[in-house]
């Protein structure tokens, strides 16, 4: 890029080729000419993002926010430049086929069409100078067009119980959304097409006269955790907590506003259409076999028997799905507590607790576990090179992992203790969400900083746990719309946090995923008078 003028249209459009959302470049501090390497498989080599391995900038950025600190100085530049910025991420960027050429970059995401090259160039020049003044000479700065998106899906348009039995087999994808596993689609009955994801189950003793009882199992209540913005409108920033009479403030809303359903409208329609198509395909196959002149009678009969067995199983699944046609039949609980949408300490509080309805679950609520479906895979075989010397979680026979009831400490997220084959500190994480299903990611030890929603009455910034996709494939993303609320966990089965949003140019696939550490969420709940435990 010629530093005396803006980058070419070709560079702006193709500089981030390979990132899931394909953001546009505005400006960069690097003076190296743009000459992306080529690949036999992709033509232009795709660019990918990786976490920053051990670097002195981590502690400077994560722990120091006072005036004169690196973070404060960068934020001051953005304020003085009146930048319409959304997020700051610090990651390594490079090309898939050139693993030795990764460069650590401080990315500043700005609202599309809000920032000219001249404005962007002024920002990267000043930020580069700030980095140098803090003794950091190996990090460059780039401004790109991207926004922060909350990952609830967008709206378009005898009581059955959530299933508990093992769900392996060819119909798992349909029955999973009807199960009590985590990672399933949920929505408010008032806005059934705005879907998110069920995170984890928590227990708490019932409150009585200002005290909490946790040692009496019969007195315990069970909650499902998800994001507040999945359940309530973003314009509603009120608190619904034990000290605020949780039931009364919700009463003015529509009667269905408190009721949560599983699955949401879009996921339900997709499952219904899918199983109907499967039934039609089986019927067509049976007709073809029955009228095939090439099969002898014995072979024809054997094949028809096998197909009819599949038809019976498929019809049973269809019956299960069709029994939930009415929204009310998919209700599984109601929102009882929700933290006000604001920044507490350093992170945006965006959580809600759903009190579960025992009559809508086959399993006793106190026996629920945080089971997530990964399939019949070996995590050790998948990640032994990226994550050495750790006790990998092993899926049960039904393909689910039962997550541990302890959490990954934030200190370990920021200073991973495990190494990959190249002796780089690495933490592999996974999640199952309504939007993108099962995906794998890399945890970054450097916090991202986002500008908080415009619905808040004052401008505040939030620290976020930063995660990028681990596949290293063109267009791979750790999260998409609908994944808000999804639980993030490591290969040992420890719970890390809850997805709340992501950074993307198009609002679909996220280049960067943001999550709130579970350690912070549990501490915040305790501060609100909720003494909860992971089941």
Keyphrases for this structure?
12 helices; single chain; Thrombin, subunit H; six-stranded antiparallel barrel; 29 strands; 28% strand; alpha+beta; 535 residues
Structural notes for this entry:
InterPro entries: Peptidase_S1_PA. This is Peptidase S1 domain-containing protein. The protein has 535 residues and is an alpha+beta fold. Among the domains are: 9-145, no CATH class; 368-534, Beta Barrel (Thrombin, subunit H). It has twelve helices and 29 strands. It has an eight-stranded antiparallel beta sheet with strand order 10-9-15-16-19-14-11-29. Helix 3 (70-80) packs antiparallel against helix 4 (117-133) and helix 8 runs antiparallel to helix 9 (297-322). It is globular. It starts with 8 loop residues before the first helix and ends with a strand. Mean pLDDT is 87; it is low at 206-214 and 245-255.
């Amino acid at each position: 890029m010629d530093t005396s003028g803006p980058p070419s249209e070709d560079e702006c459009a193709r500089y981030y080729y390979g990132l899931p959302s394909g953001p546009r470049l505005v400006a960069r501090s690097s003076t190296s000419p743009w000459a992306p390497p080529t690949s036999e498989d992709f033509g232009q080599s795709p660019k990918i993002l990786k976490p920053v391995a051990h670097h002195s900038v981590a502690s400077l950025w994560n722990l120091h926010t006072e005036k004169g600190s690196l973070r404060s100085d960068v934020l001051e530049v953005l304020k003085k430049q009146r930048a319409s910025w959304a997020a700051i991420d610090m990651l390594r960027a490079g090309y898939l086929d050139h693993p030795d050429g990764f460069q650590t970059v401080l990315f500043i995401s700005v609202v599309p069409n809000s920032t000219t090259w001249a404005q962007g160039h002024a920002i990267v020049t000043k930020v580069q100078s700030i980095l140098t003044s803090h003794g950091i000479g190996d990090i460059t700065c780039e401004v790109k067009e991207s926004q922060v998106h909350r990952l609830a899906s967008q709206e378009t348009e005898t009581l059955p119980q959530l299933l508990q039995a093992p769900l392996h087999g060819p119909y798992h994808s349909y029955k999973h959304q009807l199960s009590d596993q985590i990672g399933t689609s949920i929505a408010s009955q008032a806005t059934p097409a705005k879907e998110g994801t069920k995170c984890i189950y928590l227990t708490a003793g019932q409150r009585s006269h200002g005290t909490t009882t946790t040692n009496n199992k019969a007195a315990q209540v069970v909650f499902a955790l998800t994001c507040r913005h999945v359940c309530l409108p973003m314009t509603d920033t009120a608190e619904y907590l034990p000290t605020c009479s949780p039931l009364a403030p919700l009463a003015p809303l529509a009667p269905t506003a408190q009721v949560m359903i599983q699955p949401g409208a879009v996921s339900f329609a997709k499952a219904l259409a899918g199983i109907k198509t499967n039934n039609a395909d089986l019927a067509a196959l049976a007709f073809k076999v029955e009228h095939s002149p090439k099969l002898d009678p014995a072979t024809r009969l054997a094949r028809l028997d096998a197909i009819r067995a599949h038809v019976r199983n498929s019809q049973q699944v269809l019956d299960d799905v069709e029994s939930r046609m009415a929204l009310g039949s998919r209700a599984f609980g109601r929102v009882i507590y929700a933290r006000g949408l604001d920044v507490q300490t350093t992170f945006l509080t965006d959580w809600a607790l759903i009190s579960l309805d025992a009559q809508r679950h086959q399993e006793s609520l106190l026996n629920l576990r945080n089971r997530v479906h990964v399939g019949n895979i070996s995590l050790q075989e998948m990640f032994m090179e990226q994550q050495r010397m750790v006790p990998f979680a092993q899926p049960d026979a039904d393909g689910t992992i039962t997550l541990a009831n302890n959490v990954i400490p934030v200190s370990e997220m920021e200073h991973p203790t495990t190494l990959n084959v190249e002796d780089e500190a690495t933490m592999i994480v996974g999640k199952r969400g309504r939007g993108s299903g099962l995906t794998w990611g890399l945890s970054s030890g450097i916090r991202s900083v986002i500008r908080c929603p415009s619905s808040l009455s004052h401008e505040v910034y939030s620290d976020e746990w930063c995660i990028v996709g681990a596949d290293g494939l063109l267009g791979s993303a750790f999260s998409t719309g609908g994944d808000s609320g999804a639980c993030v966990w490591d290969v040992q089965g420890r719970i890390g946090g809850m997805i709340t949003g992501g950074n993307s140019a198009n609002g679909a696939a996220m280049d960067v995923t943001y999550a709130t550490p579970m350690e912070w969420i549990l501490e915040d709940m305790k501060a609100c008078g909720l003494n909860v435990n992971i089941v």
